[in-house]
């Protein structure tokens, strides 16, 4: 049965405040959420996000940069080229963690920005990734539209989206408890049904290039149509 996302009722600023924690705690908390709420693995995320880096890349809601650092290590292991990366986040405390992590890296730039109102020109980026974050956006449709805007024609977006818990008990119940806690705290806006978030991505102007459901995640590679 389809469920309409109701959201946590939190504003952007309230969500940013909920992420105002020490970067090490954010990373530990993220490991448990990845394992028990997303029911996903680090390897799955590396294979989803790692290949999707064009010459000029946008990392949306980059957080402290922990996953980005692991993805870039994976790319070096695969002997993939270095690219110019811009990371954005609305939570300034998370952004400071990313700036500290990547200090001295001239090809990585970080900026405080709202995914729904990006301060970049139309067609500026070749690729964009949204890792573990779409379900935290209070204005997801506006964010998807603006990310599509700043991509070049033919540019690609890789994203994973938290779905309502699936699978067997007790794993489904554990995931639900984590989601309920995340919504109360403000670090989760809402999970989605696959068809709902897929429809939103298409409505934002993307074409679906590849998709799968894995664990409690919808993993998707979407493309901005060629001019």
Tally of discrete structural domains: 1
The strand count comes to 7
List SSEs in N-to-C order: HHHEHEHEEHEHHEE
Total helices: the number is 8
What is the CATH C-level name?
Alpha Beta
The geometry reads as: globular
Rounded mean pLDDT score: 85
What amount of the residues lies in strands? 15-25%
Radius of gyration: 16 Å
Spatial order of the strands in the main sheet?
3-2-1-4-5-7-6
Helical residue percent band: 25-40%
CATH topology (fold) name: Rossmann fold
Second CATH tier, the architecture: 3-Layer(aba) Sandwich
Termini separation comes to 38 Å
Which structural class do you get from the secondary structure elements? alpha/beta
CATH superfamily: Vaccinia Virus protein VP39
| Biggest beta-sheet profile | 7 strands, mixed
What are the segments in which pLDDT stays under 50 over at least 5 consecutive residues? Answer: 15-19
Please provide a written account of the structure:
With 227 residues, the chain is of the alpha/beta class. It has a single domain, classed as Vaccinia Virus protein VP39 (Rossmann fold, 3-Layer(aba) Sandwich), CATH 3.40.50. 39% of the residues lie in helices and 22% in strands. It is built from eight helices and seven strands. It has helices spanning 12-18, 23-37, 42-49, 66-77, 92-101, 140-150, 171-185, 194-203; strands spanning 56-60, 84-89, 108-112, 125-130, 151-162, 207-214, 217-223. It has a seven-stranded mixed β-sheet, sandwiched between helices. It starts with 11 loop residues before the first helix and ends with a strand.
């Amino acid at each position: 049965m389809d469920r309409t996302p109701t959201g946590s009722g939190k504003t952007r600023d309230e969500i940013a405040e909920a992420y105002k924690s020490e970067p090490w705690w954010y990373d530990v908390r993220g490991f448990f959420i990845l394992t028990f709420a997303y029911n996903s693995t680090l390897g799955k995320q590396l294979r989803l996000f790692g290949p999707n880096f064009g010459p000029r890349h946008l990392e949306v809601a980059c957080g402290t940069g922990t996953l980005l650092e692991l993805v870039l290590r994976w790319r070096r292991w695969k002997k993939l080229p270095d690219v110019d990366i811009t990371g954005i986040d609305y939570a300034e405390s998370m952004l400071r963690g990313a700036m500290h992590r990547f200090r001295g890296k001239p090809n990585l730039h970080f900026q405080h920005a709202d995914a729904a109102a990006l301060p970049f020109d139309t067609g500026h980026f070749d690729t964009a990734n949204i890792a573990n974050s779409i379900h935290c956006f209070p204005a997801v449709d506006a964010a998807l539209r603006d990310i599509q805007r700043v991509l070049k024609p033919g540019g690609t977006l890789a994203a994973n989206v938290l779905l309502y818990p699936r699978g067997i008990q007790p794993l489904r119940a554990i995931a639900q408890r984590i989601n309920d806690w995340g919504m109360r705290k403000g670090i989760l806006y809402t999970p989605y049904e696959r068809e709902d978030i897929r429809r939103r991505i298409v409505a934002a102007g993307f074409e679906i290039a590849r998709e799968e459901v894995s664990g409690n995640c919808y993993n998707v590679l979407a493309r901005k149509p060629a001019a």
